Amino acid sequence: MTETVNNGQKTGGLTIERVFSTEGVHPYDEITWERRDVVQTNWKTGETVFEQRGVEYPDFWSVNASTIVTTKYFRGAVGTDAREWSLKQLIDRVVKTYTDAGQEHGYFSTDADAELFEHELTWLLVHQYFSFNSPVWFNVGTSSPQQVSACFILSVDDSMDSILNWYKEEGFIFKGGSGAGLNLSRIRSSKELLTSGGTASGPVSFMRGADASAGTIKSGGATRRAAKMVVLDVDHPDIVEFVETKAREEDKIRALRDAGFDMDLGGKDITSVQYQNANNSVRVTDEFMRAVEDGTEFGLRARGTGEVIETIDARDLFKKISKAAWECADPGLQYDDTINDWHTNPETGRITASNPCSEYMSLDNSSCNLASLNLLKFLKDDDTFDAPLFAKAVELIITAMDISICFADFPTESIGQTTVDYRQLGIGYANLGALLMAMGLGYDSEGGRSMAATITSLMTGTSYRRSAELAGVVGAYNGYARNSEAHKRVMRKHQAANDAVRTLHVADAQVHKLATTEWAKVQEIGAANGFRNAQASVLAPTGTIGFMMDCDTTGIEPDFSLVKFKKLVGGGSMQIVNQTIPRALKKLGYQPEQVEAIVAYISEHGHVVDAPGLRTEHYEVFDTAMGERALKPMGHVRMMAATQPFLSGAISKTVNLPETATVEEIEDIYLQSWKLGLKATAVYRDNCKVGQPLSDGKAKKADADVAATTEAEAPAKVVEKIVYRPTRKRLPKSRISRTTSFTVGGAEGYMTSGAHDDGQLGEVFLKLGKQGSTLAGVMDAFSIAVSIGLQYGVPLETYVSKFTNLRFEPAGLTDDPDVRMAQSIMDYIFRRLALDYLSFEERSMLGIYSAEERQRHLETGSYELTEASELESLKSEPEVEVAPAADAKADDVIEATVVETKTAHTTAELLEKITGTAVDSPLCFTCGTKMRPAGSCYVCEGCGSTSGCS
């Protein structure tokens, strides 16, 4: 794309260059479209929560992407002619609005340039190269207010009028489905006097009212939580109360849960607990962090006069912060001096707060609209990153994002004025983790960080270059004149950071070379024209829009797991090995037969440890957020530090820690994040929070494990320890039993099972034909052990889940029509016991059905005699089918392994099933499946719902 600029003077508009679309062909006419039925069911209740049939999508869009876009973004009442039914309608609604606004406000040289802009933008969207943030798809081109921003920052002063206005403004933002953040540090502390002579309430007390408001709006409106961020400066006299607020509430949740109250997220009793609707962050200064390092005292200052009214030990406060984060994941830290050192508008005001996910940091009473690029789309066949094509996409997208501010509506007049005056944009990306893996680069490696840094630098450099060009066409932002020197200083800081990057291979060197060119143009064109936008880039969670683009990974995140859950056209689902893995293995030099063996191993085990033929030095390429080789916490921090110098804003990301992490480890993460130049850091220790719904297995574990940490690691709050001992329920002298003869792979045997009077299994005895004395003794001992366990209350389903799918010889065909194949004798025995002694519902959860039930499912789609319900989603026979992925190319190595699976409904649940470990995430309110982390939030890959971020 070229532009018309003339030494800072406004000119006739942009001349758009054709890069992506084909001349003479509309982007829609280049692809094949198909009709699909979108039916969404809550798998727990069996309730159909959404249904729209005959929707139109490109044939290369996944079922998941089309489902989420149809349910979330199509406008109009379902079942009426007003309802959108094609992706074409959705994209046209948005793109034509942008194009018309661009023409109206003088962005294009000619009508032909406007039409070309429309085609280029349409091509990028329909081919999933990028996506705007959710509010654009919700609102643009509809009769609703044209809200395009997802991120808001409010302000509150030390007056009752301002505090009540804060409640009102936040409520309107929540009602619209967005989130907001603000800093409460202007409100005087509870240790200061009012003008009337009384003592002030303090900011924490006013947080209660705001939290109740957020909870009320959430429960009365949408199913998602209200998203909000509350920030308090570290020198505020109420800082200790603020830090410990949510940790104390977490203790209350535990006590109430143990007393029998429903304290899950969304539970009927959770509303009695306060402060649960906000993320809390402490705004720390360099002065405080140096005091922590030196072990010196730090002064807390009165809000009105600024005088020190209390002195505290900095290390003691820092430990309190880290201890609270260890207990409940709050508060996070925001590094005030670093944030404001990169601020382009300091003459207007300081940056005091952020949006709920911490990526947008700008002036009070402002907003930011976001868009994210799909990085994997720019990976060329030679496994290098197409930097020139990426830059062309960035400049087109930044142009569109700036145009949106011309027609956008805002929730308050002050937010609208600030946004129009400073035109904050937030371009970012998704699929970084997948890109690095496909290139054979470890996420926590120098090569991976160098690649991420150069891509981020190129993105922001191209964005500001385009912003300077736009300033020459339609003018600089209104606040630029008073902030011009500061803005140019920050541009020089970005350029210096780019010069400091040391590339390690050809791929990142090519990207870095173009980034260096872009930053040179930023200085040159910016000096002549100024800039159209006060900020350009952030790294957002990309939850729902990540699914729209069929991304494997969200935002800056690594891959969640090596196995994925994939829905299929026409119904059903598959377990599929991450399709970037074969490409990575090929890049690393493995032969096709080696690739096939490694992929098959990953499909079964969910990780690469001990995969056949895989060299240990290549393990790091396949490290993931969860699983056997989960990334170390500092691996996340180092990746954030590599990209932060090239972002206008910050990064939405949580540093994940294992349940065994200590308070001292969290202290170190917070300290290292400050030293490495991050703007914000949040942590989450696995299983630290009680107030969220967990999977059944995780909930049982949480109830059983009262305190697994040592005294040195955990806060000493246990007053007494109650020990529960099981009692044995012996079988009556005379009991009902059954004897079953069986054959597995040609080996014969007999099983006798005895039951209590109520029909509950109480004993099992096994005898195998043609067995030696040693094997007979082992089988007798095994039978006694299982029988005693049953009598002491170990559920039969526990034994079934542990012993089914065990693989050893003899294995193969059986003579039992209900269990046609067995992977071992143990596999057969416990499947037979499940069929004989467990209810249909219990067996369904384990994926075990009789021959009659399987036949019924084939004929009617339901295993039960009743109409189809949640059981439609559950697993059938444990037979495994291995085949190439549906979209694999015939002349390539095998792209993926697919395994039929119906017990899992999302990738998070699939990972739990394969690895036997729990994923500590909430369940989705809409479809009942387990969500997975996305930045600082959670997102449901079943329906696209998020826990608060757009």
UniProtKB/TrEMBL annotation:
InterPro entries named in the record: RdRp_reductase_class-2 (IPR050862), RNR_2_N (IPR013678), RNR_lg_C (IPR000788), RNR_NrdJ/NrdZ (IPR013344), TSCPD_dom (IPR024434)
Keyword field: Cobalamin, Cobalt, Disulfide bond, DNA synthesis, Nucleotide-binding, Oxidoreductase
Pfam families attached to this UniProt entry: Ribonuc_red_2_N, Ribonuc_red_lgC, TSCPD
Ranges for domain Ribonucleotide reductase class II vitamin B12-dependent N-terminal: 37-128
EC category: oxidoreductase
Residue stretches making up the Ribonucleotide reductase large subunit C-terminal domain: 149-684
Domain TSCPD per the UniProt entry, residue ranges: 732-836
Top-level taxon of the source organism: Bacteria
Enzyme Commission (EC) number: 1.17.4.1
SUPFAM superfamilies assigned: PFL-like glycyl radical enzymes (SSF51998)
Cofactor: adenosylcob(III)alamin
Catalytic activity: a 2'-deoxyribonucleoside 5'-diphosphate + [thioredoxin]-disulfide + H2O = a ribonucleoside 5'-diphosphate + [thioredoxin]-dithiol
Presence of the UniProt keyword Oxidoreductase in the record: yes
Record CDD domains: RNR_II_dimer
Role summary: Catalyzes the reduction of ribonucleotides to deoxyribonucleotides. May function to provide a pool of deoxyribonucleotide precursors for DNA repair during oxygen limitation and/or for immediate growth after restoration of oxygen.
Protein name from the UniProt record: Vitamin B12-dependent ribonucleotide reductase
